[in-house]
Automatic annotation (TrEMBL):
Pathway: Lipid metabolism; fatty acid biosynthesis. It comes from Jannaschia helgolandensis. Homodimer. The active site is at residues 113, 250, 280. It is an enzyme of class 2 (transferase). This is Beta-ketoacyl-[acyl-carrier-protein] synthase III. It catalyses: malonyl-[ACP] + acetyl-CoA + H(+) = 3-oxobutanoyl-[ACP] + CO2 + CoA. It is found in: Cytoplasm. Belongs to the thiolase-like superfamily. FabH family. Residues 251-255 are annotated as: ACP-binding. Keywords: Acyltransferase, Cytoplasm, Fatty acid biosynthesis, Fatty acid metabolism, Lipid biosynthesis, Lipid metabolism, Multifunctional enzyme, Transferase. Its EC number is 2.3.1.180.
Amino acid sequence: MIRAQVRGIGHYLPERVVPNDWFTSFLDTSNEWIVSRSGIERRHFAAEGQTTSDLAIRAARAALDDAGLVADDIDSIILATSTPDLTFPATATIVQAGLGMTRGFAFDVQAVCAGFVFALANANAMIQSGQAKRILVIGAETFSRIMNWEDRGTCVLFGDGAGALILEAAEGDGTVEDRGILATDLNSDGRYRDILQVSGGVSSSQTTGHLMMAGKEVFRHAVDKLAQTTLAVMEKAGVTAEDIDRVVPHQANIRIITGTARKLGLPMDKIVVTVQDHGNTSAASIPLAMSVAKAEGQLRPGQLVVTEAIGGGLAWGAVLLRW
Ligand code: ACO
């Protein structure tokens, strides 16, 4: 049985680090409020002119270096973003050109904060069906470009960054001992599209728009739906919470992360947490967290890892893999 195995990982964060105190110069807020409600202490913002593809290319190069590969060893790029450089072409093709990759195919996936999980599931399906042998799966965002700086309930929560993971086809036995992706679960429910959305777009207002969020409503859905999708992948693979070595959750908010862990009966020492340093980087948050965790020795070959995310749509899902 063909499995999509992790071959390499890397990330890039823009140089500018913005601590919570920065917001107090123009908003009625405080470090204490932001930390207590979200767990966020700082985030990175892209420099003027720095685009999502710029961040993605740097993360992709780091992943290629980690894997000992060059761009032309890759068959496909799947890039998850809600903040593309342009309306079209896909940011993935800009990354393809930026890496000097002259073969294969590249496209974007848009599932907001769940984008990386959706991209991983797509990459897994393409590898299992034989369409590609090596896929660069990227999550890259510049959410600072869509903030309403007068809305203290949202602009303090997000950051910019990129992470990239290389998946490679490998033969497995078809058991949960195989390395690679073991189960995926994707969901969306467009009835809830209004509670987290950007107020502009090509065919509606011809403007970029700003992020708007009914925070309490999103929170209300998050823990239940994240627990449900995490249980779904565990059930599909026939494993239990005790078997899980590491959880890499979407890094939106420490209260959602701890609430979901508690609901699943998973101790916090199994949970990778980077939200304090990155804020919510939407589709980039999971590969960023994975890359940091790997560098710190928290993610090691052979570990059973589950990753889960929820975001605008609502869209949510999970992937279970053996690292
Ligand atoms: N500083 C100080 N006060 C603030 C701030 C701020 N930055 N933002 C809001 N407040 C105020 C509000 O105005 C409100 O004041 P009021 O009571 O006088 O009206 C008070 O704080 C409480 O506001 P709430 O919105 O009720 O605060 P809550 O405890 O719900 O926390 C938060 C807000 C952090 C947004 C929370 O609802 C949340 O975490 N929601 C989930 C959001 C999230 O993580 N989304 C991302 C997941 S999906 C994705 O990744 C895209």
